[in-house]
Amino acid sequence: MSNDKKDNLLEKKKIGKKKLEKKLDIALKNRNLEIGLFWQRSNYFLVLNSAIAIAFLSFLGNNYNGKGIPMIMAGFGLFVSYLWIKVLLGGKFWQNYWESKLKYLEKMLHNNSMDSDSILFDNNKYTNEYTVRHFLTPDMEERKPSWRKRLINFCVLRKPSVSDSMIGLSVGFIALWFILFVCAWFYTPSFFLPMGYSIIFF
After folding, report:
1. pLDDT of 132-173, one tens digit each?
2. Torsion angle, CA of 16/20/22/27, rounded to 10 degrees?
3. What are the pLDDT digits (tens) for 29-87?
4. What's the pLDDT tens digit per position in 88-132?
5. Which terminus, N or C, of the chain has the lesser number of Cβ atoms within 10 Å?
């Protein structure tokens, strides 16, 4: 192969690597953006649901005798929680989308550069678990960790999903609002009286 052909081949590889790096940077920014938006939206819906719940319970604490307003508020809370789940699931979809793109582009870049130290996302779960376990395990010279620390490390290595926990919370709010809506439908002062007296508002 002539020198000119070798130079052209190297130039094409450099251009291809730069394109992959640019696409990888775009995917990383979009993935981080989706994670940030996920938590911003979650906080908004959580605050809104909490405000509706406080307003709903305030009627019980004030011995409200009607059932129209509590039913409307419970129905509104149910609708807001339904939107909350939809928003979270949509955000989770795009977060997974960009993470899959990151893994693919990083794998392509790794195949071109053969630099194993540059791999951040394209790792299997066993590699990730080994990395975290190695970090959590103390050196032999250090004292043995307490049972609480070992329990925490064990739970950490189970790798619970933070976003899935928030989605579960939104499902819990839907169940709560549904129960309150049914209770408001059959509302009587004697039914809610013990609950109203047990609530203290500041």
Report:
1. 666 767 644 456 767 677 777 777 777 778 888 999 999 999
2. 160
3. 999 999 999 999 999 999 999 999 888 877 766 655 666 777 888 899 999 999 999 99
4. 999 999 999 998 888 888 877 776 554 555 556 655 665 666 666
5. C
CA–centroid distance for 149 within its chain: 25
Domain that holds residue 7: 3-197
Burial 83-92 (b: 16+ CB within 10 A, else e): ebbebbeebb
User: How many domains are there within the chain?
Assistant: 1
d(CA 73, CA 160): 33
Instruction: Give the CA angle between residues 191, 196, 199 to the nearest 5°.
Output: 145
Kindly report the length of the chain: 202
202 lies in some domain: no
Amino acid (1-letter code) at residue 196: G
> Residue 82: inside a domain, yes or no?
yes
Reading phi first (left if > 0) and then psi (alpha if -120 to 50, else beta), residue 198 is in: alpha
Of 54, 85, 82, residue with least CA distance to 70: 54
Residue 66 lies in a domain: yes
Whether 16 is in a domain gets the answer yes
Which segments of 62-188 does DSSP mark as H helices, in order? 68-113, 125-136, 147-157, 162-185
